[in-house]
Amino acid sequence: MENSVKNEVTDKYSLRGRVFNRIREDILNGKYSENEELREVAIGEELGVSRTPVREAFRQLELEGLIQIIPNKGAYVTGITKKDVHDIYMIRSLLEGLCARLATEHITKEALEEMEENVYLAKFHGEKGHYEQVYELDNRFHEILYEACDSKILEHQLKDFHQYVLRVRKKTLSNSGRGLKSNEEHAKILEAIRNKDGELAERLANEHIKKAYENIVKIGVI
Amino acid sequence: MENSVKNEVTDKYSLRGRVFNRIREDILNGKYSENEELREVAIGEELGVSRTPVREAFRQLELEGLIQIIPNKGAYVTGITKKDVHDIYMIRSLLEGLCARLATEHITKEALEEMEENVYLAKFHGEKGHYEQVYELDNRFHEILYEACDSKILEHQLKDFHQYVLRVRKKTLSNSGRGLKSNEEHAKILEAIRNKDGELAERLANEHIKKAYENIVKIGVI
DNA sequence: TCTTGTGTTATTGTATACAATTATACGATT
DNA sequence: AATCGTATAATTGTATACAATAACACAAGA
């Protein structure tokens, strides 16, 4: 959020930036499990750097909520609880709706075209059962939407939440026919945006996230 | 938010935590102006610590969006643009509504009582023209609301946004009769919550934030 | 056996030293 | 005078050394 309202993590190339991204990925991809303790030296050695950049990365990860630092004790991977997921989807539902409505007014021709291509491709892969591709395309669809709303702040918020529930999402989309269903909903949102119907886009995006959550609960991945 | 989603900044007592809070306050209170460069040694000397905790604090402040770090160059205070304020209020309006609705279900008797006291006191100070107290009470009202929704994540988000627009808010409330108007709206929200009318509370909280924004624009503090 | 105390080890917190990068000053060249 | 290049200084990036704290093992006493 924090929070983290405005800036991206600046540096992809500094040691700190690389360490930060690496640990973040490792947590989200499940390499480090819940409550696992992260030791500065161990991670430093693994990545071939000293403790300093690792520590700085830790401080950032803490603000992102991915680890919890207990002073003089250690850094622990925070779990994501059922309630967290519930709350995030509740918030996301609202903000994603707002985002879709704003996108209706501000989306560029290029973004609209990428969306159309995205939906078209996702249908193909969904029918073939290519879960990995469906997952990637689903992510990308939302990213396009976020970027199209023309609000850095809203975009940042939504990307954060999106990232945060990555683990859960991955499981959901590689399961069941949710991938296809989800894509059909994308298509409808896209159409509303294309028709400049902001209110409809808002409502559809709203419902889309709610359904995604219902599916998560149904499948029982959390 | 980062996104700082879950944890508070853990440590009030470590050097890093103190440095972080100090710089944060100084930025929000306007001690450091927009685009000002923050130098590690200078701040370290001012607070009597070495560069290390200062650097760690910088990394966190960057994620909070309060400063921007340009690699190998420096840390610069980020301004808050007109559009930022607009976007934040738009988002806050939605989330504050959600928060009020949730609070209707989860608020404790103690919190409800503190709210009532808050509104009562604010009326008194508002009529007397005690702007500083009105400002503090207004802040506190929202904090109580955030804590009452029983969602750590939503609470955290809203507190972040609230903090972020602090400068603007202060100017608004010490100006005009907005303080009293605002308090009347608080009273209505409180009543809706007391009556367990979640939908009404949501709508009122929604409008409350929108009006606060309209007032900011009208007064022209940004 | 359980508890408690103490010394040891491991780990984080902070300071500092050195390296890399960037900004600045200033003179040479045109 | 303006521009470029180079040397110098200032600043950040990283590594490491030392201090403070917490975790652990193990023995002494009840």
Please, could you describe this protein's structure?
- The structure is a homodimer of 222-residue chains.
- Chain A is mostly helical and 222 residues long.
- Chain A has 2 domains: 2-77, Orthogonal Bundle (Arc Repressor Mutant, subunit A); 82-219, Four Helix Bundle (Hemerythrin (Met), subunit A), CATH 1.20.120.
- In chain A, 71% of the residues lie in helices and 5% in strands.
- The first copy, chain A, contains 10 helices and 3 strands.
- Chain A has a 3-stranded antiparallel beta sheet with strand order 1-3-2.
- In chain A, helix 5 runs antiparallel to helix 9 (178-194) and helix 6 packs parallel to helix 9.
- The interface between A and B is large, with 46 and 46 residues.
- Chain A binds a DNA duplex (30 and 30 nucleotides) through residues 14-16, 39-41, 49-53, 55, 69, 71-75.
Outline the fold blueprint.
The structure is a homodimer of 222-residue chains.
Chain A: H1 15-28, E1 37-38, H2 40-47, H3 51-63, E2 67-70, E3 74-77, H4 82-106, H5 109-128, H6 131-148, H7 152-164, H8 166-173, H9 178-194, H10 198-219
Antiparallel strand pairs in A: 1-3, 2-3
Chain A binds a DNA duplex (30 and 30 nucleotides) through residues 14-16, 39-41, 49-53, 55, 69, 71-75.
